[in-house]
Amino acid sequence: MRFIDTHAHIYAEEFMADLPIILEQAKVNGITKIYMPGIDSDSIDAMLALEKDYPDTCIAMMGLHPCYVKENYISELDIVHAWLDKRKFAAIGEIGLDYYWDKTFVKEQQIAFETQMQWGLDYNLPIVIHTRNAMGETIEAVKPFAKKGLRGVFHCFSGSKESAEQITNMGFLLGLGGVLTYKNAGVAEAIKDIPMEFLVLETDAPYLSPVPYRGKRNEPAFMIEVAKKLAEIKSLPLHEIGELTSRNAEKLLG
User: Fold this and answer.
1) CA-to-CA distance for 87 and 29, rounded, in angstroms?
2) Which of 91, 148, 150, 213 is the most buried (most CB within 10 A)?
3) pLDDT value, residue 101
4) Across the beta sheet with 152-154, what order do the strands follow?
5) pLDDT score at 122
């Protein structure tokens, strides 16, 4: 069996003490690739160093996360743009809108999101979307770009059935992580009738560990629990879940 973790912050400080062990455990559990989202300029060096050390496994993206959109967002965007000019990345991400923690820079978040979506079109790259407490606004922002051919994934999907249908109708994928295993989250019901061609797996490590690891540091190896839950929802064998979601990930992210 093979699986692809389409979203993990394994360059984070939480993994520095035991990273080789983490990557070996991922390999043992069939995780063949791990895509790493960019969040801001401070994370770039660690992310690219990890990609250099593990080029067959760890693959970098480049973007400005909405929670890191502050007074200096223009200079942060300039850094993202410079890197996109310098080399190839798997995707532009993670980008989007987050109205949960702080609404101080809502307008700046919207500008940064639209700017980076346009870069997705300019560089012919997919985008990886973060949205929290802003699902409707995020979908509306994406629609005009999707009509122009932009593609991507709504990472860590935790919306309604209606949201899932709106997203997939635009041609975008849903990234399923630990939240799928939470009893009262409603994600299982929301994606029950979504075709497999629109689904990929992720961890968002070190965050959002699946059951039975909830409350612990998340890691790519734990994604097998998400795959098991999806297999149960879709009434498919685990190896087929792995193959189908891996194909979807490779088609989108390369």
Assistant:
1) 31
2) 91
3) 82
4) 92-98, 127-132, 152-154, 173-176, 199-201
5) 98
